[in-house]
Amino acid sequence: MQRYSVFALVRQAMGWHQGWERAWRSPEPQAAYDAVIVGGGGHGLATAYYLAKNHGMRRVAVLEKGWIGGGNTGRNTTIIRSNYLQDPSAAIYEKARSLYETLSQDLNYNVMFSPRGVMMLAQTQHEVRGYRRTAQANALQGVATEFIGPARVKELCPIIHVSGPRYPVLGALWQPRGGTARHDAVAWSYARGASDLGVDIIQNCAVTGIDVEGGRVTGVQTTRGPIRCGKLGVVVAGHSGVLAGMAGFRLPIESTALQALVSEPIKPCMDVVVMANTVHGYMSQSDKGEMVIGGGADGRNDYTQRGSFSHVEETLRALIETFPMLSRLKMLRWWGGIVDMTGDRSPIISKAPVEGMFLNCGWGTGGFKAIPGSGWAMAELMAKGHSPLASAFGLERFREGRFVDESVAAGVAH
Amino acid sequence: MLRLTCPCCGVEADESELTQGGAAHLRREGPGSDEAAFEAYLFLRDNPKGPHLERWRHSYGCGKWFIAARDTVTMQVFGTYPAQGSGPPPDIAARMGGRA
Question: How far is A337 from chain B (nearest CA, A)?
């Protein structure tokens, strides 16, 4: 692999930048692999990378029906935080956040991780109590967060209107080590790292069937021919139910649309991430100056990758109350992604009912922040059959009533 | 915007006038059922990519629950019908083309 550095940049500049090699190989699919990962988003690529790096598996393929990072990995609002209430959530999200801190160095690829701080606004008394509780829980979990008052909120983010009549800011849960990263770069860096370790990344290859013999996965049917595999990892977010259907079981997941939009670029005015969960609005400013805005999930079952007008209108109406200066901004782009929602708003990293098949799904509206931790845990689960980070997120928790309940913790889908 | 006609009051309502209530025609399990049956009732869903039967409530209208047959990919609405009964009426089932 050609390493990226300032010296490489200078060297390539001498040759008019004609000498750069492709970041990852695009080989033809082989007939068989030890492990096949379905889904070339951040989670799938991270899983493949850690399978190769941490567990020495080299005959691994990632099958992507479209292009790398073209699904939810390229559609989210890039927020990274780990201020969850429950211990298992805090463990895996904090693992992910800490891996993000050194990801650029580990993968020799600038993912533009920016620990600018994330604040979750408390705009009702209910939220104040909830976030104080979360801050206490985080202290016990070793996650650095604190509950801050409105004056500190205004100091950190001067464009917030803290004393509005309808959505007053009563405080915030502040995680200074949270932030953002460039989402495309996260997918590309894992693809490049995995490819360098021998993983085959196969794009434009949709899985059309899963071969099961005697209760055990033997391979997949794809648009580029059948591929046999020893282990199958399904990491397809919104389409998890479709893949589960191919293997003959159902999941505790419903797919809905989640929307986001960006404004025209403006001068720097906000150097933190603000999440307003009461009104389902999340906002940060990109390096280009665009205000990146995320909304709430639509609720109804949806595979269209477009959201409803009424939801985005609700989000913007409420955000304008909190950020009055937004009211004159034009929006440049508006899109949706299909999120996989579980009943307790926690993910599923689990063995499937079919032997040899593993699931990593149910991240719902908050998967981007978890990519490194999710891949780490999924790889360990696939390689060893058990992962301490993933043990609370098994599929059986719904039957056994052992939820990792984050829906109550935040009061919203997140 | 998604518009559904409430079969109870006849109003064609915008999505913002309605509340969605998840998959329709679930079999409610009672005491004495085993864990697998409860899991299926409470959590497991078909979540289809295509025609879907789903519950809606006309919350800012007549307040009644009804069921809509809608395609989750094309957003085509095949029809709506009252919440009583165990499946779509024949005309709606025909429009869905037996795909649900």
Answer: 13
Residues of A at the B interface, defined by Cβ within 8 angstroms: 239, 241-242, 245, 250-255, 299-304, 308-310, 343, 398-400
User: Tell me, what's the ipTM?
Assistant: 0.92
Q: Give the number of domains in chain B.
A: 1
For residue B36, the chain A residues in CB contact (below 8 A) are: 399
Task: Find the domain containing A157 and state its range.
Answer: 114-179+254-341
Give the dihedral sign, CA A351/A356/A357/A358: positive
**Amino acid identity for residue A29 in this structure:** P
Provide the residue range defining the domain that includes B36. Answer: 3-96
Å between B79 CA and nearest CA of chain A? 16
Q: Is residue A85 in a domain?
A: no
Looking at the structure, tell me whether residues A303 and A369 fall in a common domain: no
Rounded distance between C-alpha atoms, residue B28 and residue A73, angstroms: 37
CATH number at residue A259: 3.30.9.10
Q: Which residues of B fall within a CB distance of 8 Å from A300?
A: 2, 20, 54
- Residues in Cβ contact with A193 at an 8 Å cutoff, skipping those fewer than 6 apart: A49, A53, A106, A107, A108, A109
pLDDT (tens digit, 0 to 9) for every residue of chain A, 414 residues total? 899 999 999 999 999 999 999 999 999 999 999 999 999 999 999 999 999 999 999 999 999 999 999 999 999 999 999 999 999 999 999 999 999 999 999 999 999 999 999 999 999 999 999 999 999 999 999 999 999 999 999 999 999 999 988 889 999 999 999 999 999 999 999 999 999 999 999 999 999 999 999 999 999 999 999 999 999 999 999 999 999 999 999 999 999 999 999 999 999 999 999 999 887 889 999 999 999 999 888 889 999 988 888 888 888 888 888 899 999 999 999 999 999 999 899 999 999 999 999 999 999 988 999 999 999 999 999 999 999 999 999 999 999 989 998 875 554 544
Query: Taking the model in full, what pTM does it have?
Result: 0.95
Q: What residue of B is the nearest CA neighbor of A254?
A: B47
C-alpha A125 chain-centroid distance: 29
Give a yes or no: residue A222 inside a domain.
yes
- Type and span of the H or E element at A138: helix A125-141
Do A305 and A380 have their domain in common?
no
Whether A127 and A173 map to the same domain: the answer is yes
Query: Could B72 and A308 be called an inter-chain contact, meaning their C-beta atoms sit closer than 8 Å?
Result: no
Residue A79 CA to residue A275 CA, distance in Å, equals 9
Token pair belonging to A334: 């508006």
Domain-located, residue A98: no
